[in-house]
Amino acid sequence: MNIFVIEDDPRIADFLSRGLRAEGHRVEVASTGPEGLELARRVARERNVHGPSCVLVLDLMLPGMSGLEICQTLRAEGVALPILMLSALGAVEDRVAGLRLGADDYLAKPFDFDELLARLESLSRRGREVVPVASARLVVGDLVFDRERMQASRSGQILALTARELALLELMMSAPGRLFSRERILSNVWGASEDPLTNVVDVYIRRLRSKIDDGHADPMIHTVRGLGYRLESPAVSPTGQRSAG
């Protein structure tokens, strides 16, 4: 695997470089934001030389240009390199911001090296396929999610949604008709540290449903008892799928 590390902390950069090389991977390091951006652009241009197994490890806090800015710039330019973002900022809001700007995965510092390897291997497999640039708008029936404004509307009416409700809605609208288990929703929206026995997913689904479906003859959020939830256009919704939840 070809791993390109953008990290300004010399201790972490050296640890990653030595550890990844010991595992048999090729590693190249950049230590500033502008230097990292040029490295990523070069890798994207020369990907036929490096091969498809290329992954970018990107620190969030960098001198000259932040990791978020680099990620956003690369995605805007159509660069589809898999990106694993590293940061000492492990709050949900920080992870969500990184993922929304185009990162494929997010790992908080301090991290376990074996977990880092597993995530890089997963991203490498995923990176063998071309990753399309995320659309600025998600549209399912008359429901619209504007990623740039972080605003949602149904039938032209703006929905008053909290940041967490927006994250939940964006996840479900990203794959209309897909069944999302409570565990998958919890992991994607709240993070792996959240108590798996909590009922927070059910609570937020009820809140989201009340704001999206109330007042409309055709519901969009459906509960599949014992399995999870799906969101789909009323035009294709199966009869009787919605249940209390």
From TrEMBL:
UniProt keyword list: DNA-binding, Phosphoprotein, Transcription, Transcription regulation, Two-component regulatory system
UniProt domain OmpR/PhoB-type: residue ranges: 135-233
Keyword Amino-acid biosynthesis listed: no
InterPro entries from the UniProt entry: CheY-like_superfamily, OmpR/PhoB-type_DNA-bd, Sig_transdc_resp-reg_receiver, WalR-like, WH-like_DNA-bd_sf
Pfam families per the UniProt record, alphabetical: Response_reg, Trans_reg_C
Domain Response regulatory: 2-124
Residues bearing the modification 4-aspartylphosphate: D59
DNA-binding positions: 135-233
Superkingdom of source: Bacteria
Protein name as it appears in the record: Response regulator transcription factor
